[in-house]
Structures are given as structure tokens and as C-alpha cells.
Specification:
The chain is mostly helical. It is 55% helix and 3% strand. The protein has 11 helices and 2 strands; from the N terminus they run αααααααββαααα. The protein has a two-stranded antiparallel ribbon with strand order 1-2. A hairpin with a 3-residue loop joins β1 and β2. α6 crosses α10.
Length: 248
């Protein structure tokens, strides 16, 4: 892209919106407008004082401006964008549903006291990373210029680095669990002959269509352009052979 504005404009809608809100949440915090405890996931405040917004706001705080914050934001800009432009191309409703399901799963997991975390934004980003690693398992990744590994092992490598650097382990593990649960229910279980019990609800499709978010889905019988056919037949693409997901 010739300018940052054009690059930002080219981003797919869901990843762009989520990354932007996370950036704004940290910027507003740095200006001293609010304190993180006001948006943290505190279940006693939710159920006894009806502060329902905490169920949503905790997913947008990635921490103060720091190296870790920059890494998480770049993970959205890279792995979230590649997912939305790749396996979820023209499937904006499905991508949005994946985020909604991931957020709900994380809320349930975090209700377990030993797994509780006040902010689940890092976990949601790690879920995106895990799903991306399953969709592109053979992609070669150079980790900080030190280690080369396949994308399938990237979530575990990032988890190990967080342990080395002293970051909390729970948010990363929650993201891996939520990501695997989504991938199992939508891909592995149907491929094994089971029923897809996690299909995108119609209200999500209607919401996306109503607000005209993303490109319209490819209808049945509509020809796919040559570029899409070449991409789907390229080497190392994990979703090759799962074209049924486009119409799912």
C-alpha cells in the first residue's frame, strides 16, 4: 500500500474493527479517562450490581502501551486479517460468529475460579492465533529471527515465550482451549462424519447483511474467480479440500 491510510482501509471489517477498538481502549486509558478496574470482568459486580457491560468491555483491553501490547495488536493485524481474507473470505458472518462463540466460551471458562482472568482480550487474540495455526499448519514462521518452525506449533511457542518472559499463563491457555473447541466443532468433528452443531445462526447473517459488513457471500452456482481457484489449490493451504465450508 502507498500509505498507512490505504493499508488500514484495505483491512477486512471484523479484524479492523476489533483491532481499532483495542487500540482506542488503551489510548483512552493512557489519557487517564478511566481505570481498568472499571471494565474488568468481575462476576460479583455483574451479578450483584448488574454491571453487565463488564461482560463485553473486558475483551477490548490488551494492557497499557508496551511491547506486549504491540505484539498482541500485530497478531490481530496479521493472523486475524489472514483468517478473514483466507478461509473466511466472503464469510464475514462466519468470522463474526467465531469471535462471538470464542468470547462466550472464554466467559464460561473464566467463570471457573482457577481459570479466572480480569481481561480476556489476550485470550481472544490467542484464539485467533490458534485457529490460524490450524488453517495454515505448514506455513513457515520465523519467530523473532531466532527459531524457524511450522505455524502449527506457533501457539505453543508463543506460550513458552510468555512463560519465559514472566507473563501470565492463564490467558494464553484459555485462548488455546477456546480455539480448539471452535475448530473441533466446526472442522474436525464434521470431517469425521459428525454433524456441524456450531453453524452460524441466521441472526448473525441478518446482522451482517443489514449493516452491509464485508463482501457478500458466494451464492451456490456462482463461479469463483481464477485467483480464488489458484489460492485454494496452492501448496500448504490447510483448508484445501474443505470447500463445503463456503456454502456452510
Amino acid at each position: 500500500m502507498s500509505s498507512p491510510a490505504e493499508w488500514y482501509k484495505s483491512l477486512p471489517p471484523i479484524s479492523k474493527a476489533y483491532g481499532t477498538v483495542c487500540l482506542l481502549a488503551t489510548a483512552i486509558y493512557q489519557l487517564g479517562i478511566y481505570h481498568p478496574v472499571q471494565i474488568a470482568l468481575l462476576y460479583e459486580q455483574v451479578f450483584y450490581r448488574f454491571q453487565v457491560w463488564r461482560l463485553f468491555t473486558n475483551f477490548f483491553f490488551l494492557g497499557p502501551f508496551s511491547i506486549n501490547f504491540g505484539i498482541r495488536l500485530l497478531m490481530i493485524a496479521r493472523y486475524g486479517v489472514q483468517l478473514e481474507k483466507g478461509p473466511f473470505d466472503r464469510r464475514t458472518a462466519d468470522f463474526l460468529w467465531m469471535m462471538i462463540f470464542g468470547a462466550f466460551a472464554l466467559l464460561v471458562l473464566s467463570a471457573i475460579p482457577i481459570l479466572w482472568s480480569p481481561f480476556l482480550a489476550i485470550s481472544l487474540v490467542f484464539m485467533l492465533l490458534y485457529v490460524w495455526s490450524r488453517e495454515f499448519p505448514t506455513a513457515q514462521i520465523n519467530l523473532y529471527g531466532l527459531v524457524a518452525l511450522k505455524a502449527f506449533y506457533l501457539p505453543w511457542a508463543m506460550l513458552a515465550l510468555d512463560v519465559i518472559f514472566g507473563s501470565p499463563l492463564t490467558p494464553d491457555l484459555l485462548g488455546i482451549i477456546a480455539g480448539h473447541l471452535y475448530y473441533f466443532l466446526t472442522v474436525l468433528h464434521p470431517l469425521a462424519g459428525g454433524k456441524n452443531i456450531l453453524k452460524t445462526p441466521m441472526w448473525v447473517h441478518k446482522l451482517v447483511a443489514r449493516w452491509r459488513i464485508g463482501a457478500p457471500p458466494i451464492s451456490r452456482g456462482q463461479p469463483i474467480n481464477n485467483n480464488a481457484q489458484q489460492e485454494s489449490s496452492g501448496s500448504g493451504v490447510a483448508f484445501r479440500g474443505r470447500s463445503y465450508r463456503l456454502s456452510g
